[in-house]
Amino acid sequence: MKALIALLLSIFLAFPAIAFSHAASLSPGPDAQQRINDSASRKDPASLQAISGSTVSLPSRGLGLLQSIDGLMSSGRIASAGRKNFPEALAPSLPPMSVQPSFGSNSVTQEFGFIRYLFDNNLRSDALTLLNAPYFSDSDTLSYLRGKAFFESRRLYDASAQFARVPYSSAFFEAARFHDLTARLYVGDYSGAAALLDDCKGCREDLLSLDRAALSLLAGDFSSFPEAIVSAKSSPLPQIRDAADELTAVSEAMQAFRPRSPLLLAGASALVPGLGKMLSGRVGEGVSALLAVASLAAVTAENAVHCGISDWKTILFGSMTLLSYSANIYGSYLSARIYNQKTILGYETAVVVSVRLPLLELFR
Is the pTM higher than 0.85? Predict the structure, then answer.
């Protein structure tokens, strides 16, 4: 009876009404707190989230039952008491446009003032509709404006294609090239970004330095970072110097980061249920898992003593104990993976936003 009361108490504390909400939150989705995509999804041309959103890729086959049970144990009142949320990374807004175009027959520049109004008021879909109208003649102005509209609409591959059409002789060349560089960094096209850096004729050296430094961090080439960031740190523009300082801080944090071992935390939870999650910083979830597994084990032991090992109640609660224990181990393994991936994605977000912000001031 005491073990049954303990079980009921642990259920009240550990399992809320929506038992599988936490398990669902661990699965990849289209809006995972708006961070840049992980390496796999960022390289998907259909992805529109690379500029501001991200997902954490998790195993989706074979272990769904254990993930659901772990979510059941990790979504209760005790678990939620110690849970920490990761801050959202907001997508930068489009700056007011003030680059002066050249006019021509059927030129998009005849609508330039209205397009500026649409951009300034974040009416991106309306701007795209207007810019894709068939009656505009092809021009560097049209390519640049389409690229800007695609860029701010998260259609980064389309944006890059439009920016690439702006010729070197255009007044928009430098702005288009740096926006193209930023788009490629967002989607993880590091080789393409490196090629653009090598072919950016006449572009600002301090801004090129900033992009080189960002590329070295995103590619994991920390040895090249100090040399790459030199020109940006000595820039006459405070926006670029501030961005260089941000990248330097991110570089130090990335090099100091030590990922948590999923196998080590899983082993800790195998020894003591919930210990792996406690060590990973999820104390509430760890305590919840410990209560759930211990209570089920106690009920199983009591039924085994009074009713025998072969009794159906002993078998039922024994099976529940085994599943909960296994889910607790897998949950700790999963927690370490989530922590590592979210931390890396946070660093990547800081890098690309640091590169993006100076463009808001330089190409107004």
Answer: no
